[in-house]
């Protein structure tokens, strides 16, 4: 602890030596009494007479120069909305537009567009994101930040208006963001704000504030300041939002004797604004059947995948529940079990990739004041198959204790109602499971340095010892260098039925038994970035080392990854790397899932990989990954190829193929697996889309088709028609679902 304290003091001093000064970026806005029509024209007198904010800086590819084509931003507000108008100057206004679909995050960043980042509480923890591409396709999201990494949750969806028009001057963007769509403290009249322009003709991203390109452009620590000169309005008279829904489903299961069921359900989602800071969300009999299906993987990992939460009920202020635990690392594949999360909302209402019945859900989230955020969740599920009804509760607290320090607390409780034979987290589910923990975070003013300490304890019937999870992270970065150091320890009896702790559980394929094994993780991530100034935008070298120790300090696993990333002027990527792994597999494991388990013992993996991604702005994009090397006591060849064809802006078609060929001494022939995917996205308008995904997976002998038609016929109101079909590789049908759903949003 003494060494750690000294290191803390040194790094805090380093972080304080170079600070971003938001006072250099100030906006003072005044109220308007004029009516503003959101049409993307900016022809109202208030726009014509107002001075604009300009002097944008290029953030990528060079963070040392002004934007080549400037952007002018104007802001005003009234008692209902915050209004933002922007002119992106362009001498040849023929925009690059990849897609018309809402919340298409990948294609948005390859299109001309304009974004605004708003942080009402100035805590560098949570904010809102609103964006339009040059064709008027919307994006909105919730930004949560843990350390250096802002996470943009694109599944958050709220009401606001936005339109775009083009002229000989450039692209005009006009937005009206209702105050009731955001949580804020009416006494805090200065908010954090920033703007991003996608300038695709120059393959550049421009920001209002200037900071190193090694930091994400959405980083909340680098926002400017927006002050409302005439105070903030009260939204107490507009407190209720309702979204009732009706759905019908035909479910035919061939495997169970061609049983066909017809069901009709009704549900309601309601939102009550307790005040400007806090929302109460209630969902009765929610239906998530129209949520897009997960992407499948050819799976040879020993541990569980972690997939994104897509259900709207769980999303607003979800960082309060999802951020605790080890830091998310979005640079690694889902199967790499680096994450330890006490709370993982996909444990609720999902089993075997299927949505299970929820009776109700309630969430109270928001801010008590600028320094204190709160999240309270309670969900009740029905009895489902052999599973008893379950109640899930979570309480999350986040308190700023000083300018750069915050303290977070999390309490979790799962309680069964009645007897259950349910297996959960590969462990027989006890009557209850509880978790409680604290986290202490520090982030420097300029985000060069961040540190986290955490401690959690679980509570189970008749188990009192070895129930802890604790650790620390220290992260330091400059424009060309980053190092992140992590230490975590998980006791064998630290169990979180509502969490994600995959490395804790080890499955014995011979005895069909799951065991828990305590472990400690020591990891380092180091990145070096160079800017050659030739055809390369940057050259990045990074290394990740991870050591896993079991009881008594015995080495169980060691991983070493070394990668080289080259990005060219057209934003095409070429990545090469090598990975070495040593591990002691404690129990026989059916890695290939062919009922032929590999024996327990010590293994080594050594593999090389190469990845090439072509210019993402073009109509035809190719993404090819190849990996070859030693795999357990055999060999593995893995390829992943995607061909993306875009008919801009209305259509995108993707053909993907995964091949995995395994050769083991125990097998007479090679084990060869294929996963073929065909995906089409057709946008008839910005509000009408049709998305179809077909996945052909030889590993699980399944052909899956998911086809979803969506019409947003009014704000936040949708009509869905969905077909889900599962077949064997011989095209024999196993299960088919036909779903119709409509919801209607209104407020009072």
Radius of gyration, in angstroms, nearest whole number: 26 Å
Which percent range fits the helix content? under 10%
Largest sheet: 24 strands, antiparallel, barrel
Q: What's the helix count? A: 4
Structural class of the secondary elements?
mainly beta
Can you characterise this structure?
Strand 7 (138-146) and strand 8 form a beta hairpin. The strands form six sheets. The chain has a 24-stranded antiparallel beta barrel. The protein has four helices and 44 strands. The model is unreliable at 1-18, 330-337 and 421-427 (pLDDT under 50). Among the domains are: 22-228, Immunoglobulin-like (Sandwich), CATH 2.60.40.1190; 277-477 and 492-509, no CATH class. The chain is 4% helix and 53% strand. By secondary structure, it is mainly beta.
Brief sketch in words of this structure:
The chain has 748 residues and is mainly beta. The protein has 4 helices and 44 strands.
Helices and strands, with pairings:
Layout: H1 2-16, E1 26-29, H2 45-49, E2 57-60, E3 71-77, E4 81-89, H3 105-108, E5 113-119, E6 126-133, E7 138-146, E8 149-153, E9 161-166, E10 170-178, E11 190-199, E12 204-207, E13 224-228, E14 240-253, E15 259-273, E16 278-284, H4 319-322, E17 350-351, E18 354-355, E19 358-369, E20 372-381, E21 390-400, E22 405-416, E23 423-424, E24 427-428, E25 432-443, E26 449-459, E27 468-477, E28 481-490, E29 505-508, E30 513-516, E31 519-530, E32 536-550, E33 554-568, E34 573-585, E35 601-613, E36 620-631, E37 634-647, E38 651-663, E39 671-683, E40 688-697, E41 702-714, E42 717-727, E43 733-743, E44 746-747
Parallel strand pairs: 1-13
Antiparallel strand pairs: 2-12, 3-4, 4-10, 5-6, 5-11, 6-7, 7-8, 9-10, 11-12, 11-13, 14-15, 14-43, 14-44, 15-16, 16-19, 17-18, 19-20, 20-21, 21-22, 22-25, 23-24, 25-26, 26-27, 27-28, 28-31, 29-30, 31-32, 32-33, 33-34, 34-35, 35-36, 36-37, 37-38, 38-39, 39-40, 40-41, 41-42, 42-43
């Amino acid at each position: 602890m003494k060494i750690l304290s000294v290191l803390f003091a040194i790094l805090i001093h380093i972080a304080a030596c170079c600070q971003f000064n938001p006072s250099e970026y100030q906006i003072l806005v005044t109220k308007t009494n004029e009516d503003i029509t959101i049409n993307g024209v900016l022809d109202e007198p208030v726009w014509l007479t107002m001075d604009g904010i300009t002097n944008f800086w290029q953030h990528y590819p060079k963070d040392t120069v002004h934007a080549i084509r400037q952007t002018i931003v104007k802001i005003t507000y009234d008692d209902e909305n915050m209004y933002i108008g922007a002119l992106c100057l362009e001498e040849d206004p023929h925009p690059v537009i990849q897609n018309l679909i809402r919340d298409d995050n990948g294609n948005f960043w390859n299109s001309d567009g304009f974004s605004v980042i708003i942080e009402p509480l100035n805590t560098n923890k949570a904010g809102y994101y609103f964006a339009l591409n040059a064709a008027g396709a919307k994006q909105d999201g919730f930004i949560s930040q843990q350390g250096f990494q802002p996470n943009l949750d694109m599944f958050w969806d709220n009401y606001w208006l936005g339109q775009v028009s083009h002229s000989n001057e450039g692209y005009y963007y006009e937005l009206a963001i209702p105050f009731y769509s955001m949580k804020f403290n009416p006494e805090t009249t200065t908010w954090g704000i920033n703007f991003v322009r996608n300038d695709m003709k120059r393959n550049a991203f421009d920001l209002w504030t200037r900071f190193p390109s090694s930091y994400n452009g959405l980083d909340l620590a680098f926002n400017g300041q927006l002050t409302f000169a005439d105070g903030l309005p009260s939204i107490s008279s507009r407190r209720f939002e309702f979204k009732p829904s009706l759905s019908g489903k035909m479910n035919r299961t061939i495997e169970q004797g061609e049983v066909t069921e017809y069901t009709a359900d009704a549900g309601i989602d309601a939102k009550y604004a307790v005040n400007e800071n806090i929302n109460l969300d209630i969902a009765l009999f929610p239906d998530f059947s129209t949520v897009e299906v997960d992407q499948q993987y050819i799976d040879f990992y020993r541990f569980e995948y972690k997939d994104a939460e897509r259900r709207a009920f769980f999303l607003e202020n979800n960082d309060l529940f999802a951020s605790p635990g080890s830091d998310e690392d979005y640079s690694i594949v889902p199967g790499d079990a680096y994450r330890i999360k006490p709370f993982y909302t996909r444990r609720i209402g999902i089993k075997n990739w299927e949505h299970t019945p929820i009776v109700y859900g309630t969430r109270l989230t928001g801010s008590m004041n600028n320094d204190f955020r709160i999240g309270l969740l309670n969900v009740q599920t029905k009895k489902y198959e052999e599973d008893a009804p379950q109640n899930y509760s979570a309480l999350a607290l986040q308190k700023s204790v000083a300018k750069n320090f915050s303290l977070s607390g999390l309490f979790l409780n799962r309680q069964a109602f009645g007897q259950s034979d349910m297996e959960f987290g590969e462990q027989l589910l006890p009557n209850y499971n509880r978790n409680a923990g604290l986290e202490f975070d520090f982030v420097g003013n300029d985000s060069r340095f961040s540190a986290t300490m955490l401690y959690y304890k679980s509570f189970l019937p008749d188990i009192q010892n070895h129930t802890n999870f604790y650790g620390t992270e220290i992260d330091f970065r400059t424009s060309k260098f980053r190092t992140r150091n992590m230490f975590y320890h998980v006791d064998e009896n630290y169990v979180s039925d509502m969490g994600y702790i995959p490395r804790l559980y080890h499955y014995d394929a011979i005895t069909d038994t799951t065991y828990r094994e305590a472990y400690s993780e020591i990891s380092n991530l180091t990145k070096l970035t160079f800017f050659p100034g030739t055809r390369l935008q940057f050259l990045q070298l990074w290394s990740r080392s991870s050591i896993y120790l079991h009881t008594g300090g015995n080495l169980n696993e060691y991983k070493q990854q070394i990668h080289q990333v080259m990005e060219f002027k057209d934003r095409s990527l070429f990545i090469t790397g090598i990975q070495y792994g040593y591990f002691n597999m404690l129990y026989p494991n059916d890695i290939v899932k062919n009922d032929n388990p590999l024996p327990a013992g010590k293994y080594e993996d050594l593999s090389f990989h190469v990845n090439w991604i072509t210019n993402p702005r073009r109509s035809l994009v190719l993404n090819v990954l190849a990996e070859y090397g030693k795999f357990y006591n055999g060999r593995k060849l893995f390829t992943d190829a995607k061909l993306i064809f875009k008919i801009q802006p209305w259509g995108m078609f993707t053909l993907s193929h995964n091949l995995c060929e395994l050769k083991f001494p125990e097998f007479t022939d090679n084990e060869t697996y294929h996963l073929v995917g065909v995906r089409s996205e057709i946008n008839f308008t910005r509000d009408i889309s049709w998305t179809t995904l077909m996945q052909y997976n030889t590993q699980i002998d399944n052909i899956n088709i998911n086809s979803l038609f969506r019409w947003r016929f009014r704000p936040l109101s949708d009509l869905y028609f969905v077909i889900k079909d599962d077949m064997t590789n011989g095209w024999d049908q196993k299960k088919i679902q036909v779903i119709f759903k409509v919801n209607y949003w209104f407020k009072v």
